[in-house]
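BUG: 3D viewer hangs when loading the predicted structure for this chain

Environment: internal workstation, default settings.
Expected: structure renders.
Actual: progress bar stalls at 90%.

Input used:
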Amino acid sequence: MIKLVIDCFGGDHSPGANIGGALAALRDLPDLSLVLTGDEGIIKAELEGKSYDASRVEILHAPEVVGCDEVPTIAIRQKKDSSLMRAIELIRADESVHGIVTIGSTGALVAAATLRAGRIPGVKRPAFCPLLPTMAGGIVGVCDSGANVDVSPEMLCQFAVMGSLYLECAYGIKRPRAALLNIGVEAEKGDELRKTAYPKLAALRDVNFVGNMESRDLLSGNYDLVVTDGFAGNVLIKSTEGACLEMLKKLKKDIYSRTINKIGALLMKRMFDEEKRFMDYRNYGGSVLLGCKKIVVKGHGSSNEAAFAKCIEQAYRMQAADLIEKTREGIAAIAETEE
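Structure tokens produced before the viewer hung:
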């Protein structure tokens, strides 16, 4: 049985989206059990009248909520009875609980997961690795996407190992093609960090390093994993998402500008619906925090039930593939090589 703790608060549509997604995941995954953290009275009210296997659901009372506008380090110290902190303490203390899924404060999650749940031995810094769809119909991960603004070449090597293992274990991508985000594809391009990291990445025997990648090729389908620092990774993802959204707005504006365009759009409705699903972040789960001792999945704050269920499925697949132990082995192998 795979056991996960669910933070039921902290998102735009909490607790309804969290609990609804949790029940959907229970229906789809028969060997899954959940611990729901949050105000017990509110959780029970949400569960009332719904059909689910009560033997696979526990409730851990946590009356406080960590807001996204709060200073993370202060919040995790002062709000120990929050749904997020009670969930973190549970995965720290209970070996039978394999991970956490939340759509709450990103900063508080990173701080709490790192300081309280702990890192895998040898991991210098945990890193976020969200997924985006590609033009080839696959996915591409970006590691790191915001957890670490300043990194070292050694950290980039660890990101490459952790991200590659994640994509292979959870999504069945054999020998993921890993690239280093840079301003050009030539090996000598970039700042000192990337120039130093390039040969180190190329020397990793368990990483299929394919060289540098320019940002314009993120969604090309030619890469499975992009390795970068958290600052550049965050800018890369948000710029890509923003450009895609603005293009959709422009397309919609043009369609409604003329009657002939509206008629054409009606005939192409099925295609537009497919494109909309393709670009919907809710279909790709959350951003996983790689390098922690337990599975950590952070969903988008505006997630609905379907998106939250996808995040739970993501955590389930990671645990089913024994990702933590394989990451432990992968990080240890880097250390042995360096010695």
